[in-house]
């Protein structure tokens, strides 16, 4: 069981918006930056967001991030079938002294 | 653009040592801008951070693996390596090498991953 809690799955129709939550504690999300990754089937994870809400070069602004207290949220607007993937949050845990990840959320674009 | 490529045996026997190497191209492992990291993912499961090394050789390990783990760097070959001893079936996973900027706890470049199966 992961230290960071994500919903196992979310779904929405093409063109719609979806949010994915990532819940932690004061030893991780509460005091550290959060990053988000997209993992398409059979491929390596790809960095989507870092430092809670910053997008690397090449990531469209359809992807956004926010953090409040000990939770973080990934938002995806204008959903496309190509967005179907597993999404992971990650951060540092000061108590565990380790980088930790959420269990992952499978996004289905109906 | 930095590229990473994992290599090593795809099958390891229980109780033996798993050894993988990550070859870095398009950048120097001596640049000082990154930690060089290992992450693994069992089939159908989530990501687990294994550990990281800095160019100087300083390491940080996941406490759950620390007693069995060694990460090293070879700047002359632009490579870094992972050795995990006393493996069991629970160590079967896709192993990724990845870059972590020194100022952040995120990974912006990843290798394609290599599957390691622990089985007799």
Care to give the gist of this entry?
The complex is a heterodimer of chains A (110) and B (120). By secondary structure, chain A is mostly beta strands. Helices cover 0% and strands 45% of the residues of chain A.
Description:
The complex is a heterodimer of chains A (110) and B (120). Chain A is built from no helices and nine strands. Chain A is globular and about 40 Å long. Chain A has strands at 9-12, 18-23, 35-39, 46-49, 63-68, 71-76, 85-93, 98-101, 105-109. By secondary structure, chain A is mainly beta. Chain B is mainly beta. Helix content of chain B is 0%, strand content 50%. Chain B has no helices and eleven strands. In chain B, the strands form two sheets. In chain B, strands 2, 4, 5, 6, 9, 10 and 11 form a seven-stranded mixed sheet that branches. Chain B has a four-stranded antiparallel sheet with strand order 1-3-8-7, with no helix packed on it. In chain B, strand 9 and strand 10 form a beta hairpin. Chain B is globular, with a radius of gyration of 13 Å. The interface between A and B is medium-sized, with 26 and 20 residues.
